[in-house]
């Protein structure tokens, strides 16, 4: 190397200068943050979609399950149980009069009528019905209606194995992962805000000119950089950055609001289905129990009337026999009351009945206001989430307008008009803050 000659500055690979490489790195970081936000948003969208599918599946399972509960309750308590109680009543009446049938014509006639009623009804019943077999018959208590209901449920085991609560929990798990993805996207947005605000050397702020045509996207700042903007444009660029990040943030909040609305709607639907099943199923059981208890009371009234009819008669063989029949009928009425309570008792899990049927059949009218209140609470939550999503969509529209105006005024250098996008962005931020806090 001759005297007075200097070595050329190192250019690195492909003749690129270090300042150019640093500037390209800055651009790549910006695009990397945007890609992270986009990927996290897409992942959250898919996860919330899976959560919504699970919520809808839970509603469908609830509908299928409680439709089966209502149908089986109607069949057992409205179709079979009344006839079974009549057979049980005739059988116990015949047993009560059997010891007196040889003492007089009255007892013999009543015994024969009761016995023939029980035998005829049982013989004419289908073999698979509750009175067509002795497997449900307790000689002292009557027919085991809850066990009959359990056997009816075993005909469709797949329906009663449905677990809407478990399906809802799966949806909640997907929604939790969706919120994790939203948190990742939020962290990327925060990183973009911080990175755009960090001061950098002058050589990083603008790409050195090489006199060659610039590649596509080289030198483009997809995220506004107030730290490298000229002093006159720095305040406007700051506002522009906040608007851009608000546009990144608002879709994330809308995703969360939509997921909350889906869950609340599903829960409200499930509560409505449960309430309807409880009213129908428990109503069938209560109606049967009330009819059976009334029948026992009528039997007691008949026994008392028969005893009163011969109370002041002379102690003739016929009067004595009739008093004995009245006493037997009184004992039968007491036993019939126990039969009514046994057959109409609320079922439990020990009877083999599904938990859904147990809850529905054991429900009482005083429980219904609380169930309605829970349904209304979930409906109000769904309405609130829907309103939240609507207001966030309005805030997004305002932020888009502010973004277009800010980009146009900054590009044209009309900084005096930046008050317009600033005011619109402030309105968008105010709507967002009011919506989230409200």
Automatic annotation (TrEMBL):
This is Uncharacterized protein. It comes from the Bacteria. The chain crosses the membrane at residues 29-48, 176-199, 238-257, 390-410, 419-437. Keywords: Membrane, Transmembrane, Transmembrane helix. Residues 1-18 have a biased composition (Low complexity). Residues 1-20 are annotated as: Disordered.
